[in-house]
Write a structure and sequence with these properties.
This protein is mainly beta. It is about 10% helix and about 35% strand. Bound molecules: zinc ion. The site of zinc ion (ZN) has 5 residues, from loops.
Length: about 160
């Protein structure tokens, strides 16, 4: 069947850099409820509307479309004592906020003396990306899924 409002779409995806070199390949299919439920990017819905299983397309995602643009205020220098052990440059770790608020995943940029510089931006923030999508399945959404505005079952929500 065709992708239209109130269908559940299954996709395989490959995320690549601006030249198309793969960065991330979905190991599990991506599923979403089609029809403006904000389950996925509007650009994806527009590209897939009316398409059938087997359809493949590559979308250019500008900085800020899939991931937020870079926020330089998320680059911070912290005391080494804030970390349970000295972190390695290039590693990603969850760092606990000063007041014990929910941790943010950061990338360690530099360890120098007693200070550690971390970057809280998503590694793909601010980059132009290529997203290749292959439609692997389309089905009618259930009344319950429409009511909840998301997909249930395999690869969807469980509750
Ligand atoms: Zn639900």
């Amino acid at each position: 069947m065709k992708i239209e409002k109130d269908t559940v779409v299954s996709l395989r995806y490959v995320l690549g850099d601006e030249k198309g070199k793969p960065i991330e390949q979905g190991t599990k299919p991506m599923v979403y409820l089609h029809g403006g439920y904000e389950n996925t990017l509007p650009k994806i819905e527009t590209a897939l509307d009316g398409r059938m299983p087997g359809y493949q397309t590559t979308l250019a995602l500008m900085p800020g479309e899939a991931f937020p643009v870079r926020d330089e205020s998320l680059v911070q220098t912290l005391a080494r004592s804030r970390f349970p052990k000295t972190p390695k440059v290039g590693t990603r770790l969850e760092h606990q906020g000063a007041e014990g608020e929910h941790g943010r995943v950061v990338t360690v940029l530099q360890v120098k003396g007693d200070s550690v510089t971390v970057d809280g931006n998503h590694p793909l923030a601010g980059r132009e990306l290529r997203l290749t999508l292959t439609v692997t399945g389309v089905r009618t959404a259930s009344a319950e899924e429409l009511e909840h505005r998301h997909v249930h079952g395999e690869h969807g929500h469980h509750h």
